[in-house]
Amino acid sequence: MAFLRWALAALVVQAAVFSVIAQDAEQAQVVAELSISDVKVVIKGADGSAISTLTGTYPKAVLANPQVPAAGSLDVSLSVKKGGESFKPQQVMLMLKSKSLGLAAYAVGKLKSGSYSLSINAAAVEKQIGKAAGEYEATLLVGDPSTPKGISYALGTAELLFSGASNAPEPAAAVRTAKFQPANNVKPDITHIFRAPEKRPPAIVSLVFAGLALVPLAIVILYVPLATGVNFKVKPGPPRPWRRCSSTAAWLPCCCCTCCSG
C-alpha cells in the first residue's frame, strides 16, 4: 500500500509540473506575437501638404484607389508592439506592387519617437522598377525573427501618376514576372529529341551464342581429365591399420614391412 501511495503522489506531482510548463509555453507564445496600431495613411501633394488622411485598423483596408500626384507621395505611419509593449522589429516595409506588371517597389520604415514612418513616391518607384503608371497594391510588411509570424497588412490600392517629363524607361519585359510577360517575350518550350532505339535480335539468338561461348569450357572440364588420366572423383580411402613389427617392435602401417605380426 505504501508503494501505491508513493506512485500516486509522483503522478500528481508530474501532472502539476506538466501543467505549469504548458501554461508558460502558452504565455510565451502570446507574448511573441506582433501587433500594429495607430496606422495612418497620408497622401501628399507636390508642396508637401496633405491631400487626404486616412486611419486604418488591421486587417481592414483603407485605400480605395486614390490618385497619388506625380510629385506627391504616399506616407504611412504606425506603431509596433510585442506582448503589449513597444517593439523594434527587424523589418518594417511598405510595398507597392503594380497590378499590370507584377513588379514591386519598397520603402523602408524609419523609427522616430516610438513610431515608424514610411514614404514612397513616383521617383522612388521609377528608380527601382522603371516608369510604370497605373494602379498599385499597397501592403505593409512587419516581421522579426523572434516572432513566429509576421504581419502583412493590405492597405488597398492607389493610382500612381508619373511626370510626363520623366525620362525613366518602362520596365523591361525581361524583368517582369512570368504572369505578366508579353507573349512575344516567352521563349518556346524545349523539346528533347531522343534517338530511336536500335533494333535488336530476339533473345533466343543471344542465348544460343552464350551457350556456344561456354562450349570450350565444357570441353576442358570433360575431356582434359580423360586425356590426362586425372581422376577428380577419387576420394581418399579409409586409413590403413597399424600393426606391430615383430623385428623392431614398432607400430607401422600395414604392408609397410614384411615382418608384420599378425
Précis, in short:
With 262 residues, this protein is of the alpha+beta class. Helix content is 24%, strand content 32%. The longest helix has 30 residues, at 2-31.
Task: Provide structural commentary.
- The mean pLDDT is 79.
- Helix content is 24%, strand content 32%.
- A hairpin with a 2-residue loop joins strand 4 (73-82) and strand 5.
- The strands form three sheets. Strands 1, 2, 4, 5, 8 and 9 form a six-stranded antiparallel sheet that branches. A five-stranded mixed sheet has the order 3-11-10-6-7. The chain has a two-stranded antiparallel sheet with strand order 12-13.
- The longest helix has 30 residues, at 2-31.
- By secondary structure, the protein is α+β, with helices and mostly antiparallel strands.
Structure keywords:
six-stranded antiparallel sheet; alpha+beta; single chain; elongated; 262 residues; 3 helices; five-stranded mixed sheet
Sketch the topology as an H/E string, one letter per element. HEEEEEEEEEHEEHEE
Average pLDDT score: 79
Radius of gyration: 46 Å
- Overall 3D geometry? elongated
Structural class: alpha+beta
Count, helices:
3
Q: Total strand count, please?
A: 13
Low-pLDDT stretches are none
What is the straight-line distance between the termini?
87 Å
Assign a percent range to the helix content. Answer: 10-25%
Largest sheet features: 6 strands, antiparallel
Binned strand content: 25-35%
